[in-house]
Design goal:
This protein is an all-beta fold and 363 residues long. It is 0% helix and 27% strand. The protein is elongated.
């Protein structure tokens, strides 16, 4: 015959790790209790939640084998005399377990500090708002949440500081529906070890990579790490595209026949611009100097080559100078000097390559 008895857990220490604990019963004294579970496979996992010391339990005593089997834990604060002495003690952990009219709205599987699974379905009356979520929460507040509440409608993965990923189901006042939003205070890294990475917009709008850092939170290197030893190194606000072993290609392939819709490439600063247009034209425009330098040959070829100087036009060669034309060679000026003493031509030097400005990575 099996009888249910109410007792108090006195110890859950089990040196053999078999799911045994001890409980004190008014009529029987302290007894060894065998833990039972709704579903458990030995060495195969299942549901395991052994009561803690001080818990009030119901245990089944089987007089045929004279063994005690755990049945359930009693949730009743009147039985927990020691709990009354704990400041801010709550018999049921959490503030969302009951509705405003004191009806239970949560199903939970948690440990004594609230870490575990929380399934809640509730309604707030004014205004009528549904609260419907499934949360997996750690002791320090890390969370994986599935939230069907109106105005949320999202999958949330976040740490205890609020950094994480938000996958939206429906549109709200802040996020578009079916969007993925990633936020962190610290750095973000994407690393592919043995394959490739694609960033693609198939039928939407633009792909934007933007750095709006003002440097307020940046670590600024000391002068010994400045490029050239003289150029201030910021290491904030920049965007870098670098390939160690391959090409860096920028292509705008749109060719609609409408110049306003064709693909173009713009490289701009506040005082300079390079434009590469779909019709094949390239424009370099600057409010200051444009410098072109090479240790090899510099070749220019076109249908017509036009050079105009709003000031002086100076040409200098350290070796021979040749001018060849299939037509006339015309020279027009107030004075024309050929192989005769005249004003020496002076062309400013661009300096050596080491004087070039380098980026914040000394490149």
């Amino acid at each position: 015959m099996i009888n249910l008895e109410k007792g108090t857990v006195t110890s859950n220490i089990d040196g053999h790790h078999r799911g045994r604990f001890k409980a004190e019963f008014p009529k029987y004294g302290e007894r060894d209790i065998i833990y039972t579970s709704p579903m458990y496979r030995v060495n195969g996992g299942g549901f395991l939640a052994i009561p803690s010391e001080g818990d009030i339990i119901l245990a089944a005593y089987d007089d045929t084998d004279e063994k005690w089997y755990y049945h359930s834990t009693v949730v009743d604060v009147e039985l927990l005399e020691e709990a009354r002495r704990i400041p801010n003690f709550k018999e049921i952990y959490g503030s969302q377990d009951y509705s405003k009219d004191s009806k239970p709205v949560s199903v939970k599987m948690q440990n004594q500090v609230g870490a575990g699974l929380d399934i809640t379905r509730n309604f707030r009356p004014i205004p009528m708002t549904a609260i419907n979520y499934v949360n997996l929460v750690s002791e320090r507040g890390k969370k994986v949440g599935l939230d069907d509440s109106p105005g949320v409608e999202a999958v949330v993965i976040q740490n205890q500081h609020g950094d994480g990923v938000l996958v939206k189901g429906e549109t709200d006042n802040y996020y578009a529906g079916r969007s993925i939003n990633v936020k962190s205070v610290g750095p973000q890294s994407f690393h592919v070890a043995n394959s490739y990475m694609n960033l693609k917009v198939q039928e939407g709008q633009d792909l934007t990579i933007e750095n709006k850092s003002t440097g307020a939170m940046a670590q600024k290197p000391s002068e010994q790490f400045w490029p050239n030893g003289k150029q201030p190194c910021r290491r904030w606000g920049g965007i870098y595209l670098r390939s160690e072993n391959g090409d860096v290609s920028i292509a705008a392939n749109a060719d609609s026949g409408n110049p306003e819709e064709d693909g173009r490439i713009f490289i701009t600063t506040p005082k300079a611009r390079i434009q590469i247009l779909q019709d094949g034209s390239i424009t370099l425009d600057s409010t200051d100097s444009i410098k072109i330098r090479t240790d090899g040959n510099l070749n220019m070829e076109g249908l017509d080559v036009n050079i105009k100087a709003n000031g002086s036009l100076n040409m200098q060669s350290t070796s021979g100078t040749s001018i060849s034309s299939g037509g006339n060679v015309n020279a027009n000026g107030q004075e024309i000097h050929l192989n005769s003493p005249g004003k020496e031509v002076s062309v400013p030097s661009l300096g050596d390559h080491s004087n070039n400005d380098l980026n914040d990575y000394n490149e």
